[in-house]
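Need tokens for this chain, all 465 residues.
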Amino acid sequence: MTRNVPAPSTIPVPSPILALDRRLGPFDAAAIVVSNVIGGGIFFVPVIVAQMVPHGAAILWVWLAGGALAFAGAMAYAELSALRPRAGGEYVYLREAYGPLAAFLTGWTSFVAGFTGAIAASAVALAGYLGRFVPAAADSTPIFTVPLPVLPLIVSPKSIVALATIAILSFIHIRGLGPGRIVQNVLAGLKVSALVAIIALGFTIGTGSTAAIASGAAVPVSGTLLALVPIMFTYSGWNAAVYVAEEVRDPGRNVPLALGLGTAAVIVVYVALNALYLYVLPVAELAALPGGRLLDVVGERLFGAGVADALAIFTIVSLSASISAMTLAGPRVYYAMAKDGLFLPAAARVHPKYRTPASAIVAQGLWSAMLVLCGTLSQLVSYTGFAVVLFAAVAVTCVFVLRLRDPGAARPFRAWGYPWAPAIFVLACFAMVVNEMIRNGATALAGVAVIAAGIPVYFLFGRRK
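Here are the structure tokens for all 465 residues:
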């Protein structure tokens, strides 16, 4: 008896499942951490800290304490990323420990404001600094307005420059980890090199006094504790490497290494920069500086008035590095959500040629562009600022939950100082969140509303799934 066997050309062949490309090494991932952390905060938060802690040595100690907390959090994330080396960071850990709703809310906040809002704000700031060299780039005069109901879109030369920045960096990271990694590493290298040069030249050829570092008034304990709040916001981003864990070679070893190297480098730079500020300015004068003038004043005191253009170039590079890091990290969260059916289905697709979550990158770029054009939506960043600390604390608690739930699981890396270091981190973060809600109740309440708005969206995606 003969059997009808289909011709070879008609036999269906299943399409291969495309995965993200593992091309990042530990230094690539550490560069993402450094670029994500070192932003504008270190150039205005020291003024706030000096107002709360009016003593030079105490200022350095509190910055070191904030760095120690960040490092404790990084080591906890290192264990989680080695245990679950997947794209998405906190989304993956909260899903494993607390279920899909908690995981979705962290991803929702990241998309609505966390990454996209920070990208939009940084792109607008970059356009402003570029205006020093090309005045039209900082011109906010409306060219035309798209009259959408409630939120009109205002197009100006400044917004066009910001949109172009977002589009260019999104395009680079869509094209794969090859060009994206090169651009990210170059920008991070330029940023760190410039900071190291400023610190080294400031202490060697600049004019200042080490006496200010050890001088000042008595420091109340309450002031020190309150100062940790803005300091921890300045350190935020130390967890950036975990978002790309699925694209790191040997993630059980290299992601913890990247988190440790990146966070340690930031701590050294931050403490050294604050020492330089105190070398140039007495504590009382530092505390009295107007907002946004710290880097300009320090640069003029150290190197003269002609340094302003060089500092503007440094700021442009620094902002570009931060935008690039967020453009790389954020879409991995939405990609993980989409794979679970909790985001736009297209975001789960991997580009067949470049092996990147191209649709997720485009979605993030489009929403960031919307935030640029709708100036009023920039408030989302301030509303949800405390959520960065809140979700980091909840993610670190996943270390305890998963150790209790699955004690025998293979853990290529274990958090240093467990259980005390992660416990102290969690308690400090929750104290900061409570403090923020007490001091800025209306803003925090608005942030809670933004986060809670994700609950019906979660059930909508759940129904579709």
